[in-house]
Amino acid sequence: MKTFILIPALILIFLFTLNSGCKKNNTITGPQPTGIYGSWSWIKSAGGFYYQEYFPPPIMRQVYNEDGTFQLYKNDTLKASTTFTIRREMTGWSPDTSNVIHFKDSIQFQPQMFTISSDSLILHDLCMDCFTHFYKRDRASGS
Prior knowledge:
Elements: H1 2-21, E1 24-27, E2 38-47, E3 52-54, E4 60-64, E5 69-74, E6 77-90, E7 98-103, E8 112-117, E9 120-125, E10 131-137
């Protein structure tokens, strides 16, 4: 019976160590990626152990401000507010460093790798079997 518990526990410890050991925290040494500033509306989230997709409703919106503040809205009601920083880090999802958002409220908001192309924001949770979240820039929020 102990073997049935011990082996999965050792596997989980190994996977956690492997995933967390690949991270290197390097602060960005140049201009911040300003493309993230503005308001973003949630399109979908996909991932998980059994791959699932979630779509609105509810209407979710994230706002990243140039002063480093962040707001999360659900159906146009403010649900959370905190501050954030952006760092270049090794994430395990790319052979090179990537932009990673770190939130002051790290219990409610875990760090996420992000990419921006045109008017799309893609946030990747930094864990195995986690989700990728897709957002579209709100037109009123500018570039």
